[in-house]
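Morning F.,

Quick status update on the modeling queue. The single chain you submitted on Monday has been processed. Sequence for confirmation:
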Amino acid sequence: MHIVPLGFEIDRAVVPFEKFPANRVYLLVTPEEPDYPEEKKEQLHCLNEVVRKLKEKKIEVITMEVDCFDIKELMNTVSSLILQEKEKKNVVYVNMSAGGKLSAVGASLAAMAHNAKVYYASASGYSKTDQDRKQHGLAICLKPEGMILENFQIKLPEEAGKIVLTSIWQNNKKSMNTEEILTLLISKGIEIFVDEKKARSREEQRRVQQKNRVNLNKNVLDKLERNDYIKREKIGRLNKISLTESGEYMANIIGTTGLNNAIETQRVR
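Structure tokens below.
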């Protein structure tokens, strides 16, 4: 399975399948921009040509509208697709050369974080005429030459940390207090947290509450703060937890699930 952020390329999105075969591809394209009609017209031409050529190869094509100029949105989508396909035991390839520079960075970081295979399609030359651009896109690829990039390790937070970061991001990118986070982690079945409602006495309930708070700070929030993913603000007896800029990036690299409906509605048959 391939994930291809697509800009003004045709060859770079199609020719790699001769070297890295697949039965499904996700094409990620930026939604229509009314201020740039000519650019959108060119991108739509590239998209139609790529879809046509891939369907000729009997490859299932799924298009998804993603703002490829928003690196966080792109990373989230790529990461989420990788997680979804890996759950199905599929091998995932990510093309970092068929979109712009920003999408190349975002797609590569997301792929490396989840140990997908990132590849770059080498150009034989570049289009010099309008006819060349209509036939090949910006780059001309005569042979399936390319390279798999070596993954460098991007250390993701532990499961509880992932839940905290992605939940705050999905909470309209605002914040959560410590009690809300504790309730969430208990509901997710994180082992170090115990549901205080199961306590047999009020004294035991207080011990459980205290232990949960210690575990939350020591094993989850302190680690996230040391990595500059969160910031804490004391409000009464509770802490308000919000994301730093680095935390927002990490929340999107972690990815989310819940793309199924969007994918089904945008499937190209």
